């Protein structure tokens, strides 16, 4: 497997030969199939459904559910984001949040019923937690309700920013039980009466992802479709803890994509009779970007090792998400600076990375919330309002 210029410390060498082959397969697909259409899909804000069979053929959906190392799933995430954060987010919502919810909170029967088809991407999943009136306070402020009615549950409420929801076959909906006030998870299948999903328009980031506003109006879900091992918000938070590290890997992939394009541009673009890569100030920016990328990559690699050894904690994922996304924001800005005016033109990709970075910076916990999680761990004192 050819080492990328952006992997300056050759951290991919920590993968096994079989794992490197999987990563190479993902890289080839992203470069050959996704890269040529990424800017057009982003500009039109249209999800390219024709690519889904190709993603399925990669056979990487649900790797974690099949016992793959976190290091491998991290590198797969990085490779996808290196080319297109939108399609990587689509994949992450399906395999990390939706499949992860069923794998972690579903009964054995539910896992057998849904996960194989989701692994083959014959059924696509979405994850409905965020609400119109709640973001960071979702643990205490969840407004969507669930009421038991015989052998079914009746869901009422609304969700916002739910990726994949306009076309997903299965949507995980988190709602508060009116009787015991505990948060429970429900699998809502496509076509269920009382469930509507409306695409959110006019986004300036991750435009290819079909985020939706969901409305639940007396939506009946069988008891058999309630996630049987989800007993409270602690289980929901555990899923987010597992996927938060994946967002840090996303940030690394975005930095990698922006750096590679900025480096190539600097070598080709000439001013004053020589490539701009020969100017000291341009080299300074390139090294700053590489420093952000390399330090962040080292952090997520170590995070994956902690995950694989079963000793990682909330604060480990929180620090990685907070740190890597801040470094990402700086790195894509410097990449845009190297490209000058061309940095805001889609044709050069970097402008897309700059815009998409803003969404990745915010979701799965803001910098401030992840800072408070880490701060509580190191001081022993909670500073939450």
TrEMBL record:
Chain ranges of the Acyl-CoA dehydrogenase/oxidase N-terminal domain: 16-121
Gene3D superfamilies, sorted: Acyl-CoA dehydrogenase/oxidase, N-terminal domain, Butyryl-CoA Dehydrogenase, subunit A, domain 2, Butyryl-CoA Dehydrogenase, subunit A, domain 3
Gene Ontology biological process terms from the UniProt entry: fatty acid beta-oxidation
Any Pfam family the entry gives: Acyl-CoA_dh_1
GO terms assigned for molecular function: acyl-CoA dehydrogenase activity; flavin adenine dinucleotide binding
PANTHER family, A to Z: ACYL-COA DEHYDROGENASE (PTHR43188:SF1), ACYL-COENZYME A OXIDASE (PTHR43188)
Family assignment from sequence similarity: Belongs to the acyl-CoA dehydrogenase family.
Protein's recorded name: Glutaryl-CoA dehydrogenase
Organism expressing this protein natively: Actinoallomurus bryophytorum
High-level lineage: Bacteria, Bacillati, Actinomycetota, Actinomycetes, Streptosporangiales
């Amino acid at each position: 497997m050819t080492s990328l210029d952006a992997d300056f410390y050759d951290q991919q060498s920590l993968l096994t030969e079989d794992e490197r082959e999987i990563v190479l397969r993902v890289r080839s697909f992203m470069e050959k199939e996704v890269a040529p259409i990424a800017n057009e899909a982003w500009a039109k804000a249209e999800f390219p459904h024709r690519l889904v069979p190709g993603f399925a053929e990669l056979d990487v959906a649900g790797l974690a559910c099949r016992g793959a190392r976190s290091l491998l799933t991290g590198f797969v995430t990085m490779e996808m984001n290196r080319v297109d954060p939108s399609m990587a987010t689509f994949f992450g919502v399906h395999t990390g949040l939706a499949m992860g919810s069923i794998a972690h909170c579903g009964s054995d029967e539910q896992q057998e019923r849904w996960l194989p088809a989701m692994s083959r991407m014959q059924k696509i999943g979405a994850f409905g937690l965020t609400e119109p009136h709640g973001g960071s306070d979702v643990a205490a402020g969840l407004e969507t309700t669930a009421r038991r009615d015989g052998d079914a549950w009746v869901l009422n409420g609304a969700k916002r920013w739910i990726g994949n929801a306009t076309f997903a076959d299965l949507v995980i909906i988190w709602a508060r039980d009116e009787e015991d006030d505990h948060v429970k998870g429900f699998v809502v299948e496509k076509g269920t009466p009382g469930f509507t999903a409306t695409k959110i328009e006019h986004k300036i980031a991750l435009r290819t992802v079909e985020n939706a506003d969901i409305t639940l109006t007396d939506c009946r879900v069988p008891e058999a479709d309630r996630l049987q091992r989800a007993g409270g918000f602690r289980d929901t938070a555990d899923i987010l803890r597992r996927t938060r590290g994946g967002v840090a890997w996303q940030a690394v992939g975005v930095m990698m994509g922006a750096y590679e394009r900025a480096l190539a541009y600097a070598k080709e673009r000439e001013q004053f009779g020589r490539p701009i890569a020969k100017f000291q100030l341009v080299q300074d920016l390139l090294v700053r970007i590489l420093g952000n990328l390399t330090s962040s990559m080292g952090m997520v690699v170590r995070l994956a090792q902690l995950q694989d050894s079963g000793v990682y904690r909330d604060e480990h994922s929180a620090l990685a998400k907070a740190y890597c996304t801040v470094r990402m924001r700086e790195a894509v800005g410097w990449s845009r600076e190297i490209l000058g005016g061309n940095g805001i033109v889609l044709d050069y990709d970097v402008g897309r990375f700059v815009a998409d970075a803003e969404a990745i910076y915010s979701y799965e916990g803001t910098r401030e919330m992840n800072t408070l999680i880490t701060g509580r761990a190191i001081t022993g004192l909670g500073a939450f309002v």
